[in-house]
What does this fold into?
Amino acid sequence: MDIKIHRGQEQIGGCITEVSTATSRVFIDMGQNLPGVGEPTTPDEDREMVEGIFAQNRKEHEAVFYTHSHVDHIGLLQYVPSHVPQFIGEGGKETTMAKHELLLKTNKPKSTTSEVGLKEDDSQGPRESHAQEHQVILQRIQGFNTWERPKPHTAPRPIEVGDIRVTPYFCCHSAYDCYMLLIEADGKRIWHTGDFREHGYLGKGLMPTIKHYATDIDTLIIEGTMLGRADQCIHEREVSRRMALAMEAFKYVVVLASATDIERLASIKQAARLAKKDYYISNRYLRKTMSIFTRREASVSKGLFDFHPKFLRSSDANATMRKRGFVFISTASQLACVKNICKGIDQSELLLIYSAWDGYYKDPEQVKANPRYKLFREAFDNVVDIHTSGHADRDTLARVITAINPRESIIGIHKDPGTTLKSLDIPDDLKAKVKE
Ligand SMILES: [Zn+2]
Ligand SMILES: [Zn+2]
It folds into this structure.
């Protein structure tokens, strides 16, 4: 059994891992590089890179498995040879399809983009070619195989690819429907964490899952996003509590957040309720993801993920909003719409809650790659950062590694260059197994 990390050991995102036997192989994630990571690549270069990977080490049985639907894990799916089956959790498939359906509409000639709220970088090419690209991606995603998230206290079913078995285990992260994977091949057991954390509403299952299922592991492949960041990871509940205080202090509140982070959206919703404010959206993608979350999760989460935002069709605040105040949830692409909604409102009554990674506006490379977050902040006099990471903090990483206690090796992926798992507070014999 061979493990090859094609990409992702010395960078965050762009992950591609291959596990192979004499007859079979599986890839874990086929991720696009995040903006600001490495030299930007063209779609043709991405295609060539993926085709190059599939041209080597060919096997009779092949498949790709996705831990979750963030683009740094799934973004190269369209370049996977069409005869290779691709697998993802049901929720990840549905939200990704919704995204590309809207992008397809957005990029069709003569359509309008203002309400959709999913604009792309115009420098990439004309709309027609974007539309074609999204059509191709959509078709590929439609053909994805899925696994269902098992009910609590039920063991998930393994999926067989030749002589390799892959079993998905649900985990908490800042995307919807995320998984860790157990890969069994040639009598060895590999645990791949994907992206994960413990400090979200869904994170309480982390250690029980690890202790119950990540047993007799030979090799652990673990993400290390937070290795180089000393951030204190507050719990989502605390995010929500701080938001509620801010929402009570200002009449008009805009919250900048991600449309696929179900837990953050729940934090915002709960905070608005505490502050006795209605919450509004005008982004169709956000409306779609919230309706998917509500349909799939409202009852199993006892209402935590039950979303009923007020949808603004026009980009003007209505009389009720003006009178009673509001919480408006926005994505980074909606600055023009937000400016319209807030037109005439005195800046002293207006607050932006910035609920995203601060690197998007602090890191010059990130700002160069995508200036939207910085521009968004600059439109407000009052801004407060209320956020917590989607990734395990150093303490959680150490506890997970120690609990799994792999026999042979520990491989760090999804981490900044120069950072090491050896810097964690773990026993020396485990430090000696770190392969970087
Ligand atoms: Zn990632
Ligand atoms: Zn992720």
